[in-house]
Amino acid sequence: MKILFLGNNSKESRRALKILQRHSNNIYCIDRCEKIKEFPEYDLGIGFLYTYRIPKEQLNKTWVNFHPAVLPNYGGRNLAYHAIMNQAKVFGGTIHYRM
Question: What is the pTM for the complete model shown?
Fold first, then answer.
């Protein structure tokens, strides 16, 4: 199985990638803060703190996406900042799974 990992080059993203690499040696990694123009061939996509939306035409494959805030309340960027400014009593994360 070919895995595509999309990260944001943060410490957390690199840590998640290392854990994933312990379990598979067939990972194509894009761990930087830029929008992908061409996607490689893959069977499973993993988005981990990736800054950009996955294009609609890529969603015909299996994806797992880790979003560092509760959706739909906190989408986009600077999530913790917005939660603090809104005096949120609860803050968490969201995992999407699309098959």
Answer: 0.79
